[in-house]
């Protein structure tokens, strides 16, 4: 459903940060993306979202060559991908409920059609009691879970999460992993960028994408 063919990425005139990337994210698959700090995990996730253009090679998203997409088509494609950013990107002037509901509001849906779904998702990530709090009063782990709920509300076909357990204790990290595995079992493809070896060991049937020296190595 998403694939990279001989993709390279350089920032400015520097050497390639990522090179010769050849891999695919299959429907209903689960993979960890790992590698040393600075190896390019975030850059790779940005390529997926078309927030960065590859310097060479081809990125195919849901059967479409990303280089041929119009602005509107890029927006449509992004809606099929849920993202959890490292810095959460919640809007501080909106409550958690409003933050999570935002992708559906943007799509023009009426509140009555999504209210119970937003509540259910907030319950799922353990934030129901805090639904009317503002992000500024939340802990890092709570913000992270809110960002996960927001990424999932529009039922994306693929979830990309950048260090989604980076701000939580090991118990909560296990719970979040179970949530991602459940999501995967219900048909979503999941890509988790992480440094957390312990987390990866807890789901050892997942594929591992390891970035090293700008290249991606896939371990089945
Ligand atoms: N906007 C930018 N301009 C120039 N260089 C950049 C830019 N963004 C990232 N880089 C460089 O690209 C390399 C990969 O960065 P990236 O953030 O993708 O790594 P990462 O694997 O996500 O790191 P971490 O695990 O520490 O978050 C680094 O050397 C970084 O300095």
Automatic annotation (TrEMBL):
Q: Which GO terms describe its molecular function?
A: ATP binding; ATP hydrolysis activity; transmembrane transporter activity
Q: How does it sit in the membrane?
A: Peripheral membrane protein
- Give the record's GO CC terms: plasma membrane
* GO biological process per UniProt: cell division
Matching entries from Pfam families are given as: ABC_tran
InterPro entries xref list: AAA+_ATPase, ABC_transporter-like_ATP-bd, ABC_transporter-like_CS, ABC_transpr_LolD-like, Cell_div_FtsE, P-loop_NTPase
Q: Does the keyword Nucleotide-binding apply?
A: yes
Domain ABC transporter per the UniProt entry, residue ranges:
2-220
Q: Does the keyword Cell division apply?
A: yes
**Residues of the signal sequence?**
none
Q: Where in the cell is it found?
A: Cell inner membrane; Cell membrane
Keyword annotations of the record = ATP-binding, Cell cycle, Cell division, Cell membrane, Membrane, Nucleotide-binding
- Family statement drawn from the similarity comment of this UniProt entry: Belongs to the ABC transporter superfamily.
Quaternary structure, per UniProt, is:
Homodimer. Forms a membrane-associated complex with FtsX.
The record describes the protein's role as: Part of the ABC transporter FtsEX involved in cellular division. Important for assembly or stability of the septal ring.
Under what name is this protein listed?
A: Cell division ATP-binding protein FtsE
């Amino acid at each position: 459903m998403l694939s990279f063919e001989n993709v390279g990425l350089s920032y400015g005139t520097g050497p390639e940060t990522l090179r010769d990337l050849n891999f695919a994210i299959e429907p209903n698959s689960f993979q960890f993306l790992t590698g040393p700090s600075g190896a390019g995990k975030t850059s790779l996730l940005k390529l997926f979202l078309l927030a960065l253009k590859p310097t060479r090679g081809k990125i195919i998203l849901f059967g479409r060559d990303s280089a041929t997409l119009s602005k509107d088509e890029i927006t449509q494609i992004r809606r099929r991908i849920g993202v959890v950013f490292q810095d959460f990107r919640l809007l501080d002037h909106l409550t958690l409920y409003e933050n999570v509901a935002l992708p559906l509001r943007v799509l023009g849906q009426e509140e009555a059609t999504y209210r119970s779904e937003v509540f259910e998702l907030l319950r799922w990530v353990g934030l129901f009691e805090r639904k009317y709090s503002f992000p500024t009063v939340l802990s890092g782990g709570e913000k992270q879970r809110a960002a996960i709920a927001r990424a999932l509300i529009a039922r994306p076909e693929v979830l990309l999460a950048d260090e989604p357990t980076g701000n939580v204790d090991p118990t909560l990290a296990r719970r979040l992993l179970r949530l991602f595995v459940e999501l995967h079992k219900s048909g979503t493809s999941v890509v988790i960028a992480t440094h957390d070896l312990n987390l990866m060991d807890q789901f050892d049937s997942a594929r591992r994408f390891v970035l090293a020296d700008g290249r991606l190595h896939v371990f089945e």
